[in-house]
Design brief:
- The chain is α/β, with parallel strands linked by helices.
- The protein contains 3 helices and 7 strands, in the order E-H-E-E-H-E-H-E-E-E.
- It has helices at about 15-25, 50-60, 80-90, and strands spanning about 5-10, 40, 45-50, 70-75, 95-100, 110-115, 120-125.
- A hairpin with a 2-residue loop joins strand 2 and strand 3 (about 45-50).
- About 20% of the residues are buried.
Length: about 140
C-alpha cells in the first residue's frame, strides 16, 4: 500500500446543508458528479459528502450520530490564517468548539465543528512546512 489518503468521506444528515457549508468555506463542488454526492478537490485528496443512509448502505455500517473519534486537520501558513479559517467556519454555519490558542508545541490552533458536528482542527505548526501546492511535510 502506498502511503496516501485518496478520499475522505463524511456521512451527512443533510447533503445540501453540508454542501452549502463547505462551499461557504471556499471549496468548489465538482460539477460533473452530483447525483446524491458532493465531491471537493482538496490538494492531492478528495473530500466526499454522502447522505448518511447511503453511506451506511454502501459500507454495511451504521454510523453513530455522535461526533466521530476521527477528526480532520487543516494546517495553515500563519497564526492569522488560523483565526481567519475559524471565523469563516463560524460564518458558514459551523461551531467553534475550541477557540484559537497557543499550543504546547509552540503553534497556534483551534477547532470547529461543521454543520453535522464533524470536528476539524485548524493549526499553524511552523515545524510542518506547507509547499506552494498546499502539500504538507513532516519535519526532516
Amino acid at each position: 500500500m502506498e502511503p496516501r489518503i485518496s478520499i475522505i468521506t463524511i456521512a451527512t444528515d443533510d447533503l445540501e446543508r453540508a454542501t452549502r457549508f463547505y462551499e461557504a468555506m471556499g471549496l468548489t463542488r465538482h460539477a460533473g458528479i452530483t447525483d446524491g454526492v458532493a465531491f471537493f478537490q482538496m490538494g492531492g485528496a478528495i473530500l466526499g459528502l454522502f447522505p448518511r443512509p447511503s453511506a451506511e448502505e454502501d459500507s454495511g455500517v451504521t454510523f453513530s450520530k455522535a461526533p466521530s473519534a476521527v477528526y480532520l486537520a487543516y494546517n495553515t501558513r500563519s497564526d492569522a490564517e488560523v483565526d481567519a479559517v475559524l471565523a469563516l467556519a463560524e460564518t458558514a454555519g459551523g461551531r467553534i468548539v475550541k477557540p484559537a490558542q497557543r499550543a504546547f508545541w509552540g503553534g497556534w490552533y483551534g477547532y470547529f465543528a461543521d454543520a453535522d458536528g464533524h470536528v476539524w482542527e485548524v493549526a499553524h505548526n511552523p515545524a510542518f512546512p506547507i509547499a506552494e501546492d498546499g502539500s504538507i511535510s513532516l519535519p526532516a
